[in-house]
């Protein structure tokens, strides 16, 4: 019972942290996504840098369009983070129980995180695709979630599933780095921790923020070319007019997206928007993990109190 409570506490705090960080940083996320989705030769590019996307929204009086798709993104973030953190905590505890170890090693941690990420992606891919389509739509012309999904086949709703599964390595690397660094910082306290129902240890807000930033920066740099391909695949039919259906279908495949980037932008194109991606994801992840760490204990206490109340009542 204690294992289930701690898994739920981890999942709930992770989901709430994701909701807050997604909302706060959403305009930056929209600018980043629109910038990443554009694949044109240098002299034909509409956006020279991410600030051009922001200026377009301001100059056309569509500032609020920077929030287009926010509801869908928040829904996806909440569901995906709840599933991810619950799965991660559950698989991690199951591994520790079966192995008899007190801590989890880096390799096992990576596998556990990847398994949790794969479960998350399969469930939330349609919402991820829909939010990307809404963000890359022309400012002021984004459709709602239902229209976005109803205008697409089930196959199209899962555009980018393959590369999304590949990108489970991103949160896997991130959370593995974060967890290993956290274990080092809390080594003494973890050594004194006894009993299944003991209160989970938490980092200070500053430590959680810094470890979250470092871990996400490492994961983002290592996986960025795949991140760029994923955005292109999900927004392929939003590209410039005159592109044939065959070209659009080709660009919805991983080889097609890679070829389009190489042909039009060269090898450096695989890292177009990297700075914006690092800025957004590092801030988002750091804020997310900081919030998660600070509310985990509160969530744990509330769940324990609820369990005792239900037990006494029954």
Automatic annotation (TrEMBL):
Annotated GO biological process: fatty acid beta-oxidation; peroxisome organization
Family affiliation: Belongs to the mitochondrial carrier (TC 2.A.29) family.
Phylogenetic placement of the source organism: Eukaryota, Viridiplantae, Streptophyta, Embryophyta, Tracheophyta
Pfam families: Mito_carr
The species this protein was found in: Parasponia andersonii
Entry's Gene Ontology cellular component terms: peroxisomal membrane
Solcar repeat ranges per the UniProt record: 5-94, 104-184, 203-298
Gene3D superfamilies reported in the protein's UniProt record: Mitochondrial carrier domain
Top-level taxon of the source organism: Eukaryota
Molecular function GO labels: ADP transmembrane transporter activity; antiporter activity; ATP transmembrane transporter activity
InterPro entries membership: MCP_dom_sf, MCP_transmembrane, Peroxisomal_Ade_carrier
Membrane topology, record value: Multi-pass membrane protein
Protein name in UniProt: Mitochondrial carrier domain containing protein
Principal subcellular localization: membrane
Subcellular location field: Peroxisome membrane
Keywords for the protein's UniProt record, in alphabetical order: Antiport, Membrane, Peroxisome, Repeat, Transmembrane, Transmembrane helix, Transport
């Amino acid at each position: 019972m204690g294992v289930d409570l701690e898994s739920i506490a981890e999942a709930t705090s992770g989901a709430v942290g994701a909701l807050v960080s997604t909302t706060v940083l959403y305009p930056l996320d929209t600018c980043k996504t629109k910038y990443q989705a554009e694949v044109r030769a240098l002299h034909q590019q509409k956006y020279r840098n991410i600030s051009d996307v922001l200026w377009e929204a301001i100059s056309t009086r569509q500032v609020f369009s920077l929030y287009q798709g926010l509801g869908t993104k928040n829904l996806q973030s909440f569901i995906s983070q709840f599933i991810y953190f619950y799965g991660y905590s559950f698989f991690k505890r199951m591994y520790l129980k079966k192995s008899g170890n007190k801590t989890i090693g880096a390799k096992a941690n990576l596998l556990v995180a990847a398994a949790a990420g794969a479960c998350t992606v399969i469930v939330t891919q349609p919402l991820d695709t829909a939010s990307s389509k809404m963000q890359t739509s022309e400012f002021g012309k984004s459709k709602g979630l239902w229209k976005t999904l109803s205008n697409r086949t089930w196959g199209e709703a899962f555009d980018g599933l393959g590369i999304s599964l590949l990108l489970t390595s991103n949160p896997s690397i991130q959370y593995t780095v974060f967890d290993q660094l956290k274990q080092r910082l809390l080594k003494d306290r973890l050594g004194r921790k006894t009993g299944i129902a003991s209160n989970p240890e938490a980092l200070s807000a500053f430590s959680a923020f810094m470890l979250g930033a470092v871990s996400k920066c490492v994961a983002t740099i290592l996986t960025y070319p795949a991140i760029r391909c994923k955005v292109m695949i999900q927004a392929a039919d939003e590209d410039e007019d005159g592109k044939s259906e065959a070209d659009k279908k080709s660009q919805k495949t991983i080889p097609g997206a890679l070829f389009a980037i190489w042909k039009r932008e060269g090898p450096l194109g695989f890292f177009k928007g990297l700075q914006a991606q690092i800025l957004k994801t590092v801030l988002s992840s750091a804020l997310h993990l900081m919030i998660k760490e600070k509310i985990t204990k509160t969530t744990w206490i509330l769940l324990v109190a609820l369990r005792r109340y239900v037990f006494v009542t029954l």
